[in-house]
Design goal:
Layout: H1 2-18, H2 23-35, H3 37-60, H4 63-68, H5 70-97, H6 107-117, H7 120-134, E1 137-140, H8 149-152, E2 157-160, H9 163-190, H10 194-220
Helix pairs in contact: 1-9, 2-3, 2-6, 2-9, 2-10, 3-6, 3-7, 3-9, 5-6, 5-10
Length: 221
């Protein structure tokens, strides 16, 4: 029971990392509706590859260097903001013309990978939750919840520091980057007008986060 709980807990953490709306899912959505499921999946693989890099850096302790150097975080915010604005322009251009470059099948992977590496929020996950999951111990998932935490305490406890927890985490990410593009492609096939609309929305999300990152970077100077 403990092994199964730890694996399921890892899946939940992976979904918690991958599923929230943000620049990564904007890129996945754009690639999915313009170029199909495989392009959306490759974009998801780009973001997951960045998580793999952060995971390795966490294991060797290098991720904490960024935590100790606020100036590096500022640079990451600025670079990430500029890149998001750049990719937002491309998304809007695709939405206006509704023409996708089918020959550039690796563009989604590259975009998501670069954006994820310069995304401080993704790094913060590995500096906080990720590091906590790597350290040996026990985590009572429901205990911190308000109101019901006391009654649910002890019902869902995962073993942190276990390799199976990390396997579950990356399995959860795979579930998301497989299912999310599939859902979008299915919706597009039923409503063709959805594709340019999602491309527009992806561009707006990227632009919004790009501006947010740049404002945050300027505020740190």
């Amino acid at each position: 029971m403990g092994v199964a709980t730890t694996f399921v807990g890892g899946i939940l953490f992976g979904l918690a990392l991958a599923a929230p709306p943000g620049p990564m899912n904007a890129v996945i959505a754009e690639e999915s509706v313009l170029r199909g499921w495989s392009a959306g999946f490759r974009a998801g693989l780009g973001a997951m590859t960045a998580d793999g890099c952060f995971f390795v850096l966490s294991l060797v302790g290098l991720v904490t260097v960024v935590q100790r150097r606020p100036q590096l975080q500022t640079v990451m915010l600025a670079v990430g903001g500029v890149l998001m604005l750049y990719f937002a322009v491309g998304a809007v251009r695709d939405a206006q013309s509704f023409v996708a470059d089918e020959t550039d099948e690796g563009s989604g992977f590259r975009k998501a990978f670069v954006l994820a590496l310069t995304n401080p929020y993704q790094l913060v996950f590995w500096l906080t939750v990720g590091v906590g999951l790597l350290e040996p111990g026990r985590l009572d998932v429901f205990a911190p919840l308000p109101v019901v935490g006391g009654r649910l305490a002890g019902t869902f406890v995962v073993e942190t520091g276990e390799p199976l927890l990390m396997v579950g985490l990356f399995s959860g990410i795979v579930v998301w980057i497989t299912g999310f593009p599939a859902t979008l492609v299915t919706a597009r096939q039923r409503v063709e007008a959805l594709a340019p609309a999602i491309a527009w929305l992806s561009g707006l999300v990227l632009a919004g986060f790009g501006l947010l990152f740049l404002v945050d970077a300027v505020g740190r100077l």
